[in-house]
Amino acid sequence: MSYTRRDFLKATLGASTMLSLASPAPNLLALDEDTGAARRDDRDTVLVVVQLSGGNDGLNTVVPYADDEYARNRPTLRLQPKDVHKIDSYLGFHPRMEAFSRLHKEGHLSILHGVGYPNSDRSHDVAMRHWHSAKPDDPNCQTGWLGRAADSVWHTNQKDMPAVFVGPIIQPFGLRAEHVIISSIKSPDDLTIDPAPGELQPNRAVESFRADNDNPLLNHLRDCTANASTKSRRIEAVVRASANKAEYPSFRLAETLCTVAQLVRADIGIRIFFTELGGGGIGGFDNHANQLGNHCSLLHHLSESLAASIHDLKKDKLLDRVLLMTISEFGRTVKENGRRGTGHGAAAPIFLAGGKLKSGLIGPHPSLTDLDNGAMKFHTDFRRIYATVLDRWLGFDSLTVLGKRFEPLDILNV
Amino acid sequence: MIQTPHPLLEKMTLFWHSHFATNAAEVKNARLMQQHIRLLRSQALGSFRILLEGISQDPAVLIWLGAEANRKAYPNENLARTIMETFTLGPDHCTEDDIRAASRAFTGWFVLRSKLRYIPREHDENEKQILGRKGNFTRDDVLRIILDQPAISQNLVRKLYRWLINETEQPNEALIAPLAELFAKDYDVLKLVETMLRSNLFFSTSAYRGRIKCPAEFAIGIVKALEETISTTQLANDLADLGQNLYNPPTVRGWAGGQHWINSTAIVARQNLASALLQGSGPYGNKLNPWAVAQRHGCTTPASARRFLLDLFLQGDLDPDVYNTLPKTPWGQDDDLGGRTRSFAYAIVSLPEFHLA
What we know:
The structure holds two protein chains of two kinds.
Chain A: H1 5-20, H2 25-35, E1 46-52, E2 62-63, H3 68-73, E3 85-86, E4 92-93, H4 98-105, E5 109-116, H5 124-133, H6 145-152, E6 163-166, E7 183-185, H7 216-241, H8 252-266, E8 272-277, H9 291-315, E9 322-327, E10 348-354, E11 361-362, E12 371-372, E13 375-376, E14 380-381, H10 382-394, H11 398-402
Parallel strand pairs in A: 1-8, 1-9, 5-11, 5-14, 6-7, 6-8
Antiparallel strand pairs in A: 2-4, 3-4, 5-10, 9-10, 12-13
Chain B: H1 7-19, H2 24-27, H3 30-42, H4 48-56, H5 59-64, H6 77-88, H7 96-105, E1 109-112, E2 115-118, E3 128-130, E4 133-135, H8 139-147, H9 150-164, H10 173-186, H11 189-198, H12 215-225, H13 232-241, H14 264-278, H15 290-296, H16 302-314, H17 320-323, H18 337-349
Antiparallel strand pairs in B: 1-2, 3-4
């Protein structure tokens, strides 16, 4: 990374907001030098997972419009070649994913084709559990891969929470950790200190919490209390500074990603963000009937929200630190059913977005004729992507997290 | 926990809830979960032997461990592994062979329509070798063999030491050995806990502020000190945000606790919960009223209320530097004493010292 945390703070908070902070700015910066040491490495990279609940129909997302098999299998659901946003002479984005098409052209979006896993399950709960645990062979696995990732970098005296879930649904299993506490939040407010009851505000000068006691627990508590009040003020400053920048569409996912961008900007040490589209449970992407309209609006939300967040981060020169990744429990059947919908499938594409991507299209599009029980076959195990993201992006050890080595993919420009 | 006449029983029930950690969201049956907690409470200060026997045949535990069907042809290793490695002996005191043999002894037990059933033809009648003993063992035999091992009382005494006394210092062997020996005689939990709590050690400096309160202890400490009851639904949600989703421990190893409870985000959440509890409005209503409690205890002036609250929450023991950070605007008789006392109480319970027990 070519700029320091100090530069980053200057660039993002700006002089005016700095002056409005309750505590004098020099203190804030001085303290930050200390708290930054708790970070495991200095790359400060951030992973944002966007879960598409219900099983996204990859074929109507990245459309093989030139494939006769596509047209033949999808008499009512097929998207017309003239309507898709063409990527090449074979593939195009769904007509409502104009923003994704733009991101792709700018080099900020990669499509990984044919992602899945061996003997994939077709029930929502089981398949989603597999994507979350990343251990499909272990039905008794009680932790999620991101929970284990958070646990793997935890150390005594750690002040910052390494991961967070942002959204209104129950925290997904993927974040289940054995040791680390991972919060669920709806907005940045949930990470800031509320006003005290009554009218007297306690003195939160961080100097009063010197960690020079001989009780190690009290020292840790004092460190965290001081850090909590610094971080809280920093989040408030970032939220205030971005109050009038309404550049996000009014979709729920966009609000969520706006929160993520604000927290990245506040630089409070969170390395993993988990977000969701589709409502959790058997989510909105599960379209067994009349798929066209519903799917279309979800893809529109996804594409516009993600693009807004990419542009927001890029404007503040933060995009190089952020990698977004979509996951979904499975793709859909190639052939539509008799109710203008699709059944549960297997392989599907994954999207990566960010500033450090290698190329736009990764791996061949799976065949539409060589099928497994009506669904496209996978050629890339999702755990290879997880391993790549852990090792090469976050700098966490994928062997600890996944329990096995998976061959990395050459998808990141780092 | 809030209304109990017997806080120690509740505290020990919570200890066993984290020890025999069973997750309600995975059991997906509230009645079975209630039955499970009832079992924990009935023996929380009773017999560890009866408790362990109850746990090994508790439908909620079997469902949570994916052991609803212990067939002769497919013995379920997860139940035997969890009982031996997590609930009793620890991985250093049993081998993979012991676990495999024990899982064969557990065959025949099923959970069918939420009820425990024994199907004799599914029980493996062959000889098994477990922890050095040979025989055609059944589930009850396995538990008997496990309970004969010294490792079990050692482990539990150490864990209780962390829970009741100090979680940063490793207690030395001379301290643990006699307690473990006492406990191994009859597995009487009450006698063990009583011995620990009456010991000189419990009143020594190493037992003082040597533990971090779990979220439930933190919140209930505030509520009980202020002599009130509050909405438990709201509180359960807030505790979950602090990392302690009661009835839903993250894994079979329970809540890791200790320093794991605390990071900057957890501090923010604890302070905000304290603020909500003491706000006098909002989700918790105006039930907690520190000024009224202080008056009830004979305080007539703001100064005496301050002293009362410091004694109540921090045993009057606070570093002078820290004491000076507390709000010290002089309170006149015309001021809103209720509101000011709320501010003061909040300032105390959001101090680093208050998270320690």
